[in-house]
Amino acid sequence: MDGSPMPDGERGPAPADFQRARSPEAKQRREEAILTAARQLAAERGIRQITLTDIADAVGMHKSALLRYFETREEIFLRLTGEGWREWSVGVRGQLDALDVSESDPDAVASALSATLASRGMFCDLLAQAPMNLERNVSSDAVRRFKYGTHAEVEAIVVSMQRLLPALSDADGVDVIASATALAGAFWQIATPGPEISALYRSDPRLAHAIVDVGPRLRRILRELLTGALAA
Fold first, then answer.
1. What is the pTM of this model?
2. Which of 5, 106, 150, 206 counts the most CB atoms within 10 A of its CB?
3. How far apart are CA 19 and CA 27, in angstroms?
4. Which residues lie below 8 Å from residue 222, measured CB to CB, with a gap of 6+?
5. CA 91: distance to chain centroid?
6. Is 210 exposed, middle or buried (0-12, 13-18, 19+ CB in 10 A)?
7. Which of 19, 21, 8, 3 is nearest to 59 (CA)?
């Protein structure tokens, strides 16, 4: 067995039959299978609903065997958050780099940031969970790797922003990205209540303010932040 997720309709090995990965390559394949299972479960049910046992069952291994590869449930999702940062960074820099410098303004930059975040629901969910939960039940080494990785992506995004807005300082660029990701995480949580609460908001005009459209709201706030930073 190479650690890949089982095809639909097939059962994974019984926990007692699960063999520990012996080579670095096998260990990496096993870790990727675990991450893939966690990613799929989170996309279906939301991160808060997924337990370590759920992930182990999806891969076809006992929870105690899974703990040989990841120390906690939170470490698995923190790894996925780091992947999300890298994927978003590539996406938003691609949009920013495609903009014409002569036509760029705070609104264009805010639009690229907000649109690329709003279209990544699971990443927004991870962004909200990371500081509240995911960074709190892992080793300091895991947090260090995560922070180093996100810092590198932030620096790369700031460079793309400064090509369009040369007056934007490094510090202001970092603040805008920090605000964008923090607000995206919070707004996504507000915008995705359970079905019953969502129906309540839509049925009661007095609660209409509770319905959040993440992209447009985030764009307006980021535009004002950028405009203020450039005017300072």
1. 0.84
2. 106
3. 11
4. 109, 110, 113, 114, 176, 179, 180
5. 13
6. middle
7. 3
